[in-house]
Structure formats: C-alpha cells, structure tokens
Amino acid sequence: MNDRQTLRIPSWIRGFHVYKDWWTPTCGEILPLQPEPENAEDKNAVAVLKESRVIGHIPYHLANTKDRTGIITHFISKPTNRGSVEVSGKAVLVWKYHVFTILMVQANTSIYFNN
C-alpha cells in the first residue's frame, strides 16, 4: 500500500536576482529543495537547487517561523520526505531602487511525504 502524499503550494523562488546570470527559468522545470542549516543568514533557509547549485530559496513563510515550524521545513526535515519546486511562470520584478533590483520566479512548491 502506497501512503505517499503530495502537498502543492503556489509560491515563488526568491533571490533570483542573485543567480540570474547563471540560471534562466524554464516553465515546467522541476528543481529539488535542500535545507540549509549552515546558512549564515538564516539557519532555517531552504534552497532551490539546479545541478547541485543554489539558484534561489523558497519564501520565508514556507521555510521557517520562530519555532522552525515552517510547513516545508517541517516536512522535508524527515528522512523519508522530499520537496521540489516546479517553475510555473516567469521572473517578476518585486522591487527596484537605483541599481538594486529584486526579482522572483513564479513557482509551485511541492512536498512529498509518507503518512
């Protein structure tokens, strides 16, 4: 009996402006998630990977809360579970100030877990 479940959450890949010279988003592209407990900026960060290289992160509210109970972090911290992001749209401008620009990529975040 297969007790595998999937939870899909509309979201985005944040930080694209940092990685845009290395990665071009493609609709339908599925990218794995990896917790980053050693991340100096945020020990609860969850990275989006392409070819084992970080190309962004899932939104803060999915990755963590003050009690480390963000829904994605909660599920993918278990060894039998995994998560991924499917690119569902293009990069969108979120904020621009002089030469500093923040872009995010539209995506669906999925987690696969066992009951």
Automatic annotation (TrEMBL):
<keyword id="KW-0378">Hydrolase</keyword>
<feature type="domain" description="HIRAN">
    <location>
        <begin position="26"/>
        <end position="64"/>
    </location>
</feature>
<dbReference type="InterPro" id="IPR014905">
    <property type="entry name" value="HIRAN"/>
</dbReference>
<dbReference type="Pfam" id="PF08797">
    <property type="entry name" value="HIRAN"/>
</dbReference>
<keyword id="KW-0479">Metal-binding</keyword>
<protein>
    <recommendedName>
        <fullName>HIRAN domain-containing protein</fullName>
    </recommendedName>
</protein>
